[in-house]
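## Example record

The block below lists the input lines for one assembly entry, exactly as stored, with component labels intact.
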Amino acid sequence: MTARQAQFTGVIPPVVTPLTAEGEIDQASLERLVAFLLEGGVSGLFALGSSSETAYLTEDQRSRVLEIIVGANAGQVPVIAGAIETTTNRVIERGGISKKLGADAVVATAPFYTRTHDTEIDRHFRLIADAVDLPLFAYDVPVCVHSKLSTELVLKLAADGVLAGIKDSSGDDVGFRRLTLGAAPLPGFSVLTGHEVVVDAMLLGDADGAVPGLANVDPHGYTRLVNAAADADWATAKAEQDRLARLFEMVFVAKGTSGTAAGLGAFKTALMLRGIIATNVMSEPMLPLGGTETAAIAELLDTAGLLGTAVPR
Amino acid sequence: MTARQAQFTGVIPPVVTPLTAEGEIDQASLERLVAFLLEGGVSGLFALGSSSETAYLTEDQRSRVLEIIVGANAGQVPVIAGAIETTTNRVIERGGISKKLGADAVVATAPFYTRTHDTEIDRHFRLIADAVDLPLFAYDVPVCVHSKLSTELVLKLAADGVLAGIKDSSGDDVGFRRLTLGAAPLPGFSVLTGHEVVVDAMLLGDADGAVPGLANVDPHGYTRLVNAAADADWATAKAEQDRLARLFEMVFVAKGTSGTAAGLGAFKTALMLRGIIATNVMSEPMLPLGGTETAAIAELLDTAGLLGTAVPR
Amino acid sequence: MTARQAQFTGVIPPVVTPLTAEGEIDQASLERLVAFLLEGGVSGLFALGSSSETAYLTEDQRSRVLEIIVGANAGQVPVIAGAIETTTNRVIERGGISKKLGADAVVATAPFYTRTHDTEIDRHFRLIADAVDLPLFAYDVPVCVHSKLSTELVLKLAADGVLAGIKDSSGDDVGFRRLTLGAAPLPGFSVLTGHEVVVDAMLLGDADGAVPGLANVDPHGYTRLVNAAADADWATAKAEQDRLARLFEMVFVAKGTSGTAAGLGAFKTALMLRGIIATNVMSEPMLPLGGTETAAIAELLDTAGLLGTAVPR
Amino acid sequence: MTARQAQFTGVIPPVVTPLTAEGEIDQASLERLVAFLLEGGVSGLFALGSSSETAYLTEDQRSRVLEIIVGANAGQVPVIAGAIETTTNRVIERGGISKKLGADAVVATAPFYTRTHDTEIDRHFRLIADAVDLPLFAYDVPVCVHSKLSTELVLKLAADGVLAGIKDSSGDDVGFRRLTLGAAPLPGFSVLTGHEVVVDAMLLGDADGAVPGLANVDPHGYTRLVNAAADADWATAKAEQDRLARLFEMVFVAKGTSGTAAGLGAFKTALMLRGIIATNVMSEPMLPLGGTETAAIAELLDTAGLLGTAVPR
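Predicted structure tokens for the full assembly:
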């Protein structure tokens, strides 16, 4: 990893949101999940990201989820809270609530739903940073936002102290390397990858950490990966990544459904199978994975050595 | 127009949201705008659509805008309220508020930000229709939602009584004709076009009405257009449309900004020039159009015969 | 239609390319098809367009097809020849061959496969117009070329005498209306729509003509439609268009295949059923439609009154 | 790199096509370039790829370029020839010519310009492999072809012996890792990355080699990178990659032009500055980079230690 002293490094899982059979926030399961992740060695928690089904939660539910995570975490690692809202004033409102509820940083995307422009994205992040008294992460996720943050803009906002870091889920490997190279002289700026299966590669290329949804299911594995990379033991990091990449195939198990339902549904199903959360219920209008998919995911967990192992409760 | 008895027909402008210099909802301007539109002969009001900067308003502001419009309208025409939210439960929550505030129908898009699937979109609209006790319109706006509603799905939802109508801003002329053809046997289902410059053409092809943003600026013109079409006076309809299409060039005046800022900024500037609203202020992070753009828009208004004419106050 | 004196107007079908069972160009069928189209009243023939499977033909086959069409047409109507090639020099080479083989105009797209830019598209069309001694049409077909021709650029090239016309298959109804409005003062410039189901609407909006693939199957119907529009008999034009739009549903019959195979496969199958061409064989790697699809298309032909009617041979 | 015995490994630059001031193929420059690349330690030559301006060359020019490269190479390394054509029969025709001209393998994309489908892409590659008696590479380049090859399809075609390898320029890092993992049990199948700035990372993730356009400019650097990775000396590989990633910034120097003109224009300008090729002329309708851009590229070359160094002639 880099010579910079990024504040947010290592494994920072985007915490999934367990639901009861009735579709309500399942507090007990969420608390178990946070404990499991902390025990697994994660160095931060990303609440209310895409993997948390944020887009499916009401404003009250969003607050409730953050409250539970902050409570269960009890200050052990930084909590980064998504403020995934369409535009500036909405992000600022949500960011203020996050601050009150105890978040240590907030994450915002470029404006979405509406069409936008680089000059407006620039202004958007500056206004948020001014208004919300917490470190601000940009979240680059074109599959959701339908625009890509430009490397030049991100680096300028970083240099101006507007951004504390970026979570890059763009899948643009060239852009990512340009970011880490460009951020080299920016002390404290964190470049985090959101991609589950190339964490070893991105760490080799100077990523500061990762926000992999799959780390909900196997935080210990990602911690080993990141530790090996920190020791420049690339053979170990790569072997661990290969195991996790095979496990990640769970997100391709379900067919005839959205990628979100298939992917998050798989993580929830795996967590249910590992005994961490109570159900694999998804937010409406998504349906939970069924029996066939659950069996296939159990097999992948088994291959990865994750079934039958004692799990902290 | 069609032999069907669609409930929602004619000109239904998506009401823009006037702001004060400080960026607050400008009640007096909004009330003047509603009066102007009603005087202009519109047959409905679409509140909280994309053209209303819905994506930029906080939840409280959304409620406030709807309240003002419903109040100013005082039951003269139906008020259709956008419930533009990312997913099902959020739409339902907003739809319930709209009902309480006096809306006559609600409008929802497919899920956005998150990835989705036809089976989930189907379930999404059915759950909303079940939960919100108002006629439900689908809003097909791929430039915002980044998925296109399938013609087959819309017609199925219409046939099943889930949808009362659709506002089509997809720009897909083939899909639109397939909709009006397919909807022919569905009494009461409204097919509305969201496109400003082809209203004559779409009415020829059996559209029930239009939701043109430009109708904020010239409701009288659109009313004449729709009336001519109802009389099968296509030459008059076409001439009116040509005049309006030339006026619509105002949305292409601003450069180096988002399409939203350029387009809605132009409408607001024109309304300011016509004396209906007080400022052309836009929601953050958009900036209002400047002097050069304002002069160009004044010229287009003049060419269209809309400057210097007495406007109701 | 417009007051301008566009050179190319009316129905100009993109002639499909009949193949033998072995996948070779079927000269006899192609000659029958040309005779059928001329008898159906078309005012031009568009050879080697997307609907001609141009992208699937070798250079020699392209020349052969054009030769047959020019021969069968024998000067009765203008023949417009596609020069659908990735970039400038390739278009120029193909354009020169088209001229030699007797084409009356050539059609080119923006550069494709490679990334391009407005300045390069501008230069591209100017270089082609300089090098090829025939009227030049631009072909705007984003579904193939993956860029959209800008209205401003097209109108500039038209004003400068570079372009003689445009075939618009972009599906962008707003852009199309801006084109016909902008072209109003350009004598001789032809704006042709490539969309099958909105020809009435586009003619109302001043299109000069249409290039509908479905006109292969029912040239008489499209001729009636265009004639009615020329007489400002919009009710008749609209009724004819509705019948044709219902017939057009044939392109949605096949599932689990490409849109090209489904659409062109349907046209070929319908022409086979009408007795004009010998087989519905498609170019590799596409497969012809099967029995179930053929039966469904026969039914659509029957509903449209096109089965059992005597067809010129 | 992998335990598999891939046939095609290491650095395989996509050879740029030098042009004379008049825009003709510059044989002397192309021969010098091949000699430079071979001296730089490359393990193969990719002729007629996107970086070779294939989309801009006439059929005769394509043959001429391949002839010159095969001649200059004189059997020292394998020559892989692009058969970048829209559809199956055209690829087969071009593949046959490539075989005759001495290519050692051919490369084809999925069908482009036309819409396609997985079943047709599958059939496309099988028909080519049957007809062309050379190892067949798939080229996954969505930015040109506008469809992405599915991982499942590629692995199936690999397992069936249809494909000898893939050049992946998709920028989809997750897909790439799934490919190398899935190809692990497929002896001889080559997975090559087309991305210049993540070669170290992709090699860590079991890529067999790279096809970086920038390797035209600095083949020695890429050879050192690949050799270090082969020795599992990841610190050296990463340092070399960082230097090359900084050099790659040359493709972002030009503004107001296409990405192709900016990127390939930069490579040609750099090669001109290094004394390998005579001009930086680009194919029509692209313009060569000008003086300001050339100066900026010279600076980047200098920073990378590539100016003033003796270059083999």
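Chain C has a mean pLDDT of 95. Chain C touches chain D at residues 50, 55-59, 84, 86-90, 93, 111-117, 119-121, 123-124, 127, 143-146, 256-261, 283-287 (CB under 8 Å).
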